[in-house]
Design brief:
44% of the residues lie in helices and 13% in strands. It has 411 residues and is α/β, with parallel strands linked by helices. β5, α6 and β6 form a beta-alpha-beta unit.
């Protein structure tokens, strides 16, 4: 059996989506900025897609900007507002568990002279609202908090964040990376008070290389790239029309089954958590439980062994999962999200993330847990660390711990 449980990284394209996209490769292949009739027909359909996406988040069509995905959208949103408003303020707040793209942007802004504070989270991976209030300054211009903690699966209190920002005596713009929430859980930009929001199509069985950025009307915004006239001057260049239409189809399928999927995967999530906690000793659930956790994420740390080794061993059994950060699992650095929730290096290195796509089944979850039990037992029997005392000894020596990592990663 093959089981893919790294759907937070990407998802399998729905065949219905591909069918819709083919039309825009071979028949309606024109760019929407042409003046001839066939191009104007494409323009109308792209505009209708813009209207559709706006409707799904309670926005206006002109507030939707198509991008290559959430990473580009994050760059457009944060750089766009920060650089435009630098003369009014240079202070930005981002959460300590942002996706790597936002973390990279924050580091770049620091080099450009911006002051960046990293908002701490609690032991469940949920941002501390009282700390947010303390961090706000007269120079604060932007706050960026991810909608769903992409590694540990906790749902962030978006509405509460916006309410705090509204209390400030000056406008503070609110951005959220919603790549792991859009089309999976409801999100209303008006109700939540969101000014900018990033979305990626390949996170809900749409095509790769397409996404959108929501930019609230009248939000100060400086484009990242410049070019000739196009469908949207905020993001010039030839539009990925097949991608746009494929993303729309994927969203239509997802929203049509949203309630059904939420119920199904909440059950599968809790079923998997219960099985692992009952059947595998020395494990720690990372992130929140119940309603504070997305239905699509299960994350555990396994004592005395490396997550890299678990991932490789599971892969040999046909189960593919993530360890460490979704975009940095190739290195042995401790996962920053686990450290942010109070975990130590051993807990971070021993973490595994299982994330569901719309097609995963209970049979696949059972197969995964059965194989996981075998893998954990086998790796622990090979590990030089058998107890907390052994772990403390190894943690006390960076050189010895690194050797341990190499051994486990090659197991």
């Amino acid at each position: 059996m093959f089981v893919f449980l790294d759907n937070c990284r990407t998802t399998k394209l729905d065949e219905k989506v591909l069918d819709d996209m083919k039309i825009y490769f071979f028949e309606k292949f024109q760019r929407p900025d042409g003046i001839y009739l066939s191009a104007q027909e494409v323009h109308e359909e792209v505009s209708q897609a813009q209207e559709y996406f706006a409707k799904t988040i309670n926005a206006q069509p002109e507030e939707i900007v198509f991008t290559s995905g959430a990473t580009e959208a994050n760059n457009m949103a944060i750089f766009g507002v920060a650089r435009r408003l630098k003369e009014k303020g240079n202070h930005i707040i981002v959460s300590a568990i942002e996706h790597g793209s936002v973390m990279s942007i924050a580091k770049r802004l620091q080099k450009e002279g911006f002051e960046v504070d990293f908002l701490p989270v609690d032991s469940e991976g949920i941002i501390k609202l009282d700390e947010l209030e303390k961090l706000i300054k007269p120079t604060t211009i932007l706050v960026s908090v991810i909608s769903v903690a992409h590694f540990v699966g906790s749902l962030e209190p978006l509405k509460e964040i916006s309410e705090i920002l509204k209390k400030s005596n000056h406008k503070i713009y609110f951005h959220t990376d919603a790549a792991e929430r859009y089309a999976k859980l409801p999100i209303d930009v008006e109700d939540f008070g969101i000014d900018l929001m990033s979305v990626s199509g390949h996170k809900f069985h749409g095509p790769k290389g397409i996404g959108f950025l929501y930019v609230r009307k009248n939000t100060p915004f400086e484009p990242l790239i410049f070019g000739a006239s196009s469908f949207d001057k905020r993001r010039p260049g030839g539009e990925n029309v097949p991608g746009i239409m494929g993303m729309r189809k994927a969203a239509e399928i997802a929203f049509d089954k949203m309630e059904e999927n939420i119920k199904k995967f909440t059950g599968l999530r809790d079923y998997m958590i219960n099985r692992i906690e009952k059947e595998i000793p020395d494990v720690t659930l990372n992130g929140a439980r119940g309603e504070k956790r997305t239905p699509y994420n299960v994350n555990f740390s396994f004592k005395y062994i490396e997550g890299e080794a678990i991932s490789l061993a599971l892969s040999m059994e046909g189960v593919e999962v993530a360890t460490g950060s979704a975009c940095a699992s190739e290195n042995l650095q401790p996962n920053y999200a686990i450290l942010a929730i109070g975990g130590d290096h051993a807990r971070a290195h021993g973490s595994i993330r299982f994330t569901f796509g719309f097609n995963n089944t209970k049979e696949e979850i059972d197969y995964t847990v059965d194989k996981l039990k075998e893998v954990v037992e086998r790796l622990r029997s090979m590990s030089p660390i058998k107890s907390d005392d052994d772990l403390e000894k190894y943690m006390g020596s960076g050189e010895e711990l690194h050797k341990h990592e190499e051994v486990d990663s090659n197991a």
